[in-house]
Here is the input.
Amino acid sequence: MAQQQTPGNSAGQQLDYKRYLLLVLRYWYVVLISLFLFLGWAYYKNKYSPRTYQVAMTMLIKENQGQENSAAMLFSNSLIKPNINYYNEPYLLKADPLIGQVVQKLGFTTSYYLQGNIKTTEIYPGLPLEFTPDTTNGASLPYGSTFWIQVLNSRQFQIKVYVEDEPLFSSAEPVYEFGESIQLRDQIIQVTKKPGFTNSEAFKQAYIVRFDHPGSVAAAYVSKLNIKWVEQGAAVLSLSTIGEIPEKEIRFLQALSQTYIEKDLTRKNQNASNTIGFISDQLMQIGDSLDLIERRLQNFKQENIGVGLGDRANVLFSKLQGLEQEKNMTVLRERYFDYISDHISRGLETTDLIVPSSLDIGDPVLNSLISQLVNLQLQKEELKRSTQASNPILITLDERISDLKQNLLKSIEAQRGSIDISRKSINREINLVERDIRQLPRSEREFINIQRVYKLSESLYNYLLEKRAEASITKASATSDISIVNPPKQVSGAITPDVKGNYTKSVMLGLGLPLGLLFLLFYFNNRVQSKEDLAKYTSIPLLGMVGHNPANNNLIVTTKPKSAISESFRGIRSNLNFFTSSTAAGNNGKIFLLTSSISGEGKTFCSINLASVFTYSGLKTVIVGADMRKPKIFQDFKLTNDVGLSNYLAGVSKFQEIIQPTHIQNLYVISGGIIPPNPAELLQGERMAALIQQLRSEFDIVIIDSPPHGLVTDSLLLMPAVDHTIFVVRQNYTTTTLLKNVEADYASGRLKNISILLNDVKTSKHGYGYGYGYGYGYYEEDEDNTRKRGLASLFSSRSK
Here is the structure.
């Protein structure tokens, strides 16, 4: 069998969305105010937040495929075809030294601003002025400082330290001339006019000028510069940056790309420049020797007129000349290997090494090793300026450089062995030729020796001249492997503030925040709100409901007999007749006991007005203040508490002495009396039972105002002697937990002949509470209150 759903059982309960909707309608103004506040925030943010724009460009990193120019045809080697590591390009472009060079070239360390009432806006390109430090005194620009500056005319200006909210320039401020040395924050600088300066009225207002340290400006651009490959496997880089002034960001990307291209050309021409320098040194030495030999040859011819070489001598001379040229080439190669070994052994920079192909050393392995070493060293130098020594990329580069150096030394040693074999072979052949020459006449032998040295030096000199010319052509015709695909331009409109997004967020927050708070209040509100709550948590029948009392007076039925509250008590009086019709006996009066869970639920208020309603029917009624712990019912009737229930139960006073008439006809009051130490014992005594019998016989209606049921047991002691118990529950005050406790007592049989009176029900255009119930607006005395409250009833609520 399925479990029966009982009042108070929380199983199967669902959220009452209708009640939540009515709660929102009740506090509609809170939702509206919240929405307007957030919309105002969005408007302020959109209007006064700095607008930022995105500027982007693309660059192509070319691959070295084939020979691209005439220099490559004449001088096909790694001087004009360095290897490119594409993965390093984004790091090199964001290197601090490179960015720092760009921002200083563009003058970004000096910024101008125009101060407004709410925000300060940067002016670009600013004033056509240039600030130059006096380097003779070791001065620099006053970095980290801000100044006011105002151009007075084409010759004069004023400048002073910036202080917020300080009045601007006055006649007492010093006036300076353009080009004059002035002192700013311990730094001596000169302010000069740039070309294009005009004595415009726009320049004559006060501007803010700020000097930022180049390192901080470079760091800011490094952080906001975004570099990435257009797509995987492509050789196109996308560069983008974000700033408040698109023109400034465009100039930055233009300068960055141009500077990087120049650095690439410088890197490519480094080997050619080193080769030209090396060959020029060799030419100077050979040139001196060649001049000396040439003079010696001329002197010999003058002294030996008519001496020449015979046929055999010419043959021997030609053969010897070829062998000497071969020998000189081996010497040149040995010098080159000594040059490379010396660089490596002494730990010198390898970025300026000369590649062997520039000297016709055609070993492909050696050429490849030196080209790789030079490129890796260049990459390392670039990264060292922008990263720390612990960077994994630098560590990897160091390892690769060390391995290349070892392999290079091994290759050189192998080449030295080959050179040694060639030199020995050439020397043997030279010795054979020289033996034949010694058989010639003395004059021919001397002529051959002089001619031999001269031709050897001349051929070597011409060879080096040719190589230097090739290197010069390479340097002059080299082009960068980096080219601009799309120049810098503004991508779209302002990306911040996000106008639509801010308004969307403001609407969501403006509605979501109050609705969420109201939902939390609704979800965690465990107080009784309506008669539906009574039906949900208890099976005790409902006697009636009493509306909210806006007046500061408990005698509402007496003062306003035509009000809605008075009418509600009349309805309760009629309902009590149904509850007690079977318990009435003869002409004896009826006794009703009013109690509640805790104090403050309106039990005394209901007792007074219910009694007042019975008197209007001509019934003699008495109110018994049975709450002897906190007697207060006498206060509303302006009576005394000197003699009351406690005095009678203690045997000190008589019945007639405790009955006090009120100003209301047929209504009497028995106050609680002096507070006794044992009220529970007095209530269960014989005198209390006798008092109830006597009251029943002398009065038509007896209303007992008892202590709260949930706090003390006094009301339980009196319930068996009464005809009906009225349990007072106050809207938005009594918790559902207390109501469940009452239901438990009722279900167990401890509470009998009981009904619930829902008190302090607030009325509105949505009904009582959150719209459940009824109002009494058609009563004339309620119409007066309604007119007085007006719209204020929507914005405030009072609880009694």
In short: The first strand starts at residue 53 and ends at 61. The chain has a mean pLDDT of 79. The CA atoms of residues 100 and 215 lie 7 Å apart.
